UniProtKB/TrEMBL annotation, chains A, B:
Belongs to the class IV-like SAM-binding methyltransferase superfamily. RNA methyltransferase TrmH family. Keywords: Methyltransferase, Transferase. This is TrmH family RNA methyltransferase. Residues 5-83 form the MRM3-like substrate binding domain. Residues 98-235 form the tRNA/rRNA methyltransferase SpoU type domain. InterPro entries: Alpha/beta_knot_MTases (IPR029028), MRM3-like_sub_bind (IPR053888), Ribosomal_eL30-like_sf (IPR029064), rRNA_Methyltransferase (IPR051259), SpoU_MeTrfase (IPR001537), tRNA_m1G_MTases_N (IPR029026). GO terms for biological process: methylation; RNA processing. GO terms for molecular function: RNA binding; RNA methyltransferase activity. It comes from the Bacteria. Pfam families: MRM3-like_sub_bind, SpoU_methylase. The keyword Methyltransferase applies.
Length: 245, 245
């Protein structure tokens, strides 16, 4: 059972404002919930229409009706379960290894895909501008598939971060040097810009090396690669030198 | 003005069955419509809430109300315009160059992203299994951003295509050879498998060389890369040898 008040409170978590106020977020689907539960996230509430569901044979859900699940869900076609977790504080910034920086990535799906990529490529730190999509947006949580637990995501001023780091700063630009012909270090910062406008001018001024993925189409009409696919290619280029080592 | 019958007919095009019957599809937003109009697609109907819109200073829209646009739109938040285009027949299959093959990619967003990637990397032919998401699904049309006009997409039996080609056949597998250490030819076929189940067994039997993108995460927990981001990395690896030539 969920009361009207609970429904109101959980629905509030669909919005960033209330997530920040309550320091709580929503996850849906047993796979994502189980992954978050097994990692560092503290579960607060666990609802399901299916009484046979359990987390680690231990945590049983509060059984709710399909109608109520639909009310609290963010999905058009709700799963069988929804959980509320505590937001975990970000860990302190480290100035080492390979760090990815996002300059105003607005699409939650792109952010989610990029977090999965960081996890795959062993990038433990993702620095986001304050305008980047919210990590705890339900669409991001669904897209990350639990990898959110393994990447430290920090929202901060990119100018401050880039001024403080001693690592070489690379950025993705349409007119940068061809990445395939560029020597890439294993320790660096890589900046990816906004979907429509690219890297902002103040951030661009702090970038030491511009790189790009060349276009091979004859007609040269494709405007740009999607930011998540461009990130995939560039992270692969940075990481390949470690392959087999 | 749109009549009730027109609304019914256009709404029908949200479904594959009616698109196939009528050989028509929907595009929304002036950018996508303009790109399709400028390429090989024949426009049938053009509706807008904005009387100032025109295609190449020539084609004016039928003005409709926001309420009617909402009825015929596939988007939650409709744009200001919607057009109906004729489906263009696929061109005959060529057995040359680099061809991408999709084995049951179900997500329209993934298919759209992959078509944009083909366009970027100058891959003119995309072979899809019959079970792959429909090219003319409105979500695919929105995600391709017009690059659909520059890639020949053919739905056919993958077994037949792979048996007919004389090009070397590569496939993406979790346990394949590390792509970074593999010599890749400039002319080849690359097969990408379904989001959840990978490449089907009958197709796998026809693959000559399995390749994979190694995982760098310490914990090795990320289950897999999203198929669109994996495609991005592999196409980049195939194409880079052409860079600067």
């Amino acid at each position: 059972m969920v009361s009207k008040n609970q429904i109101k409170r959980i629905t509030g978590l669909h919005q960033k404002k209330f997530r920040n106020e309550q320091q709580l977020f929503i996850a849906e689907g047993i796979k994502v919930i189980q992954e978050l539960y097994n990692s560092s996230f503290e579960i607060q509430e666990f609802y399901s229409t299916d009484s046979s569901l359990q987390l680690n044979n231990k945590v049983k859900p509060d059984i709710i009706s399909e109608t109520d699940l639909k009310k609290i869900s963010c999905l058009k076609t709700p799963n069988t379960c929804l959980a509320v977790f505590k937001i975990a504080p970000s860990k302190p910034i480290k100035y080492e290894g390979l760090t990815l920086v996002l300059d105003d990535i607005r699409d939650p799906g792109n952010l989610g895909t990029i977090i999965r990529l960081c996890d795959w490529f062993g990038i433990e730190q993702l620095i986001c501008s304050e305008e980047t999509a919210d990590l705890y947006n339900p669409k991001v949580i669904q897209a990350t598939m639990g990898s959110i637990a393994r990447v430290n995501v920090v929202y901060t001023s990119l100018e401050r971060f880039l001024k403080n780091t001693k690592q070489p700063i690379y950025g993705a630009f349409m007119d940068g040097d061809v990445v395939y012909e560029t020597e890439l270090p294993t320790t660096a910062v890589l900046v990816m810009g906004n979907e429509a406008n690219g890297v902002t001018a103040t951030v661009e001024a702090l970038i030491q090396k511009k790189i790009s993925i060349p276009r091979f189409g004859k007609l040269q009409k494709t405007e740009s690669l999607n930011v998540a696919t461009a990130t995939a290619i560039l992270l692969s280029e940075f990481r390949k030198n470690l392959s087999g080592k």
